[in-house]
Amino acid sequence: MKRVFLLGLTVIAATSVVAGCGGSSDETGGGQTSADGSGGNVSLVAYSTPQVVYDQVIPAFNATPEGKGVSVATSFGASGDQSRAVAAGLDADVVSFSVQPDITRLVKAGLVADDWNTGPNKGLVNTSVVSFVVREGNPKNIRTWADLLKPGVEVITPNPFTSGAAKWNMLGAYAYGGKDYVEKLIHDHVKVQPKSGREALQTFTSGKGDVLLSYEYEAITARKKGEKVDYVIPDKTIRIDIDIATTKKAGEPARKFLDFVLGDTAQQYFADWGYRPINPAVLKANQKSFPEPKELKTIDDFGGWEKVDPELFDAKDGIIAKIEEDAGVSTAK
User: For 300, which DSSP code?
Assistant: First the structure.
């Protein structure tokens, strides 16, 4: 059965926290916890969306014996921009990005070990699924990928050449219907492609479009912020993998921080914000919140990012790049 999840309308008031926990925003942000550094220092560089989760995770880490006195400096922004910044010299002990190629860049630069994804968590901090965010009550009755091609349906998705989120969205569309489907979707139904996933959400909640292609957790975050939206998980969709790794220069405080992020307490914070936990015990405890789609593909089903990125998104020869160019969309990063 296709599932439509009606999101509650409870507004959760924004709360100020210690410096370094500024809340989610479209702009690159960050700061530092109130810990004095007596337990060491950690620099976390991540994509922007989970900042609201780390606002809770970092103080909780500081409250543990392992995190006592550990100062955690943070930087949040668009995944690709953050990865390129680290490659160019931005200080980082722990990195977390929305697509694997952004960590692969750091492996090639000699900053992250090439076995970063061989541990029990396989380099993941959490997962999600590509979903359809719709207007409250789902007035256009959007339930399947085919419904996105109905006459008059306007779809919003970020530009896949500036947004990691959009690469997953387009891969979901491609997995469903191949090149012809993506071509019809982009040319006939996608009228605007904002730079980032967060900008796309803002565009949708401002009143534009009928459907937003997005991550499941973006819809849940929108609910927690009081937006009147529903969301649909199509029967056929793709699992989104969110990566995390320590850099080669990372010390013991960073490794302890990563262990905490993957542990029960932090993973529950991620679950509360709509991220599917990678921690098996926490995922099991929250199973009702994260129903399994009928057919769930993974990046491995398509040969991994090593095959998918050049085949679909190479600016010169990629299948989706050519579709976007024909539609007048920039493929520049």
Answer: G
Cα 264 to Cα 282: distance, rounded to the nearest angstrom: 6
User: Would you state the structure tokens that stand for residue 136, as one six-digit string?
Assistant: 């409250």
Confidence of residue 105 (pLDDT cuts 50, 70, 90): very high
* Alpha helices in the chain, H assignment, sequence order: 51-62, 79-87, 101-108, 164-188, 197-205, 216-224, 252-261, 264-272, 280-285, 305-313, 319-326
* Inter-axis angle of helices 51-62 and 264-272, nearest 10: 150
Judged against a pLDDT cut of 60, whether residue 106 lies above it is answered with yes
Query: How does DSSP assign 262-287, residue by residue?
Result: TSHHHHHHHHHTTPEESSHHHHHHTG
Strands 211-215 and 71-77, how do they pair?
Answer: unpaired
- Burial class from Cβ neighbours inside 10 Å (0-12, 13-18, 19+) for residue 183 reads middle
Q: How many CA atoms lie within 13 A of 60 on its CB side?
A: 18
How does DSSP assign 134-198, residue by residue?
EETT-TT---STGGGGSTT--EE---TTT-HHHHHHHHHHHHHHHHHHHHHHHHHTEEE--SSHH
DSSP state letter for 58:
H
Residues facing residue 41 across a β-bridge: 71
Core vs surface per residue 4-19: b (16+ CB within 10 A) or e: beebeeeeeeeeeeee
Give the Cα separation of 275 and 127 in Å (integer). Answer: 6
| φ and ψ at residue 152, rounded to 5 degrees | 85, -5
Give residue 197's pLDDT band: very low, low, confident or very high (50, 70, 90).
confident
pTM equals: 0.85
* Lookup: tokens for 250: 């990372």
Taking residues 233-257, report their average pLDDT: 97
